[in-house]
Design brief:
This protein is mostly helical. Helix content is 75%, strand content 0%. The protein contains three helices and no strands. α1 runs antiparallel to α2 (50-63) and α1 (11-44) packs across α3 (66-80). It is elongated, with a radius of gyration of 17 Å. The two termini are 27 Å apart.
C-alpha cells in the first residue's frame, strides 16, 4: 500500500491520522518526562555516569523522530483546514 502525501488526504483521512498521532504524542511525552526525571535524579545525587548519558541520548532520539515531524505537519494541516 502506497503512502499518500499528507496534503492530498481528505478531511476524514486527516482526522484519522491525527487520532493515531495523538496517542503517539502522549506516549512519547510520557517517556520523555520519565527520562527527564531520571536525569534530574542523576544530577541531584551527582551520578555523572551512564545513568546520565543514556537518558540524554534517548531523549534526543525521541525528539528527532520522523513521526514527531509528521505529527506537527498534521497539526498544521488541521489548523489550515479548520478541523478539530
Amino acid at each position: 500500500m502506497e503512502q499518500k502525501n499528507l496534503s492530498e488526504l481528505t478531511n476524514e483521512e486527516l482526522l484519522l491520522e491525527a487520532k493515531d498521532m495523538k496517542s503517539f504524542s502522549i506516549i512519547n511525552a510520557f517517556i520523555i518526562g520519565f527520562l527527564a526525571g531520571i536525569l534530574f535524579i542523576s544530577v541531584y545525587f551527582s551520578a555523572y555516569n551512564l545513568s546520565l548519558l543514556i537518558p540524554l541520548f534517548l531523549i534526543y532520539k525521541l525528539t528527532n523522530d520522523p513521526k514527531n515531524k509528521k505529527a506537527k505537519e498534521i497539526g498544521m494541516l488541521m489548523k489550515e483546514r479548520n478541523l478539530q
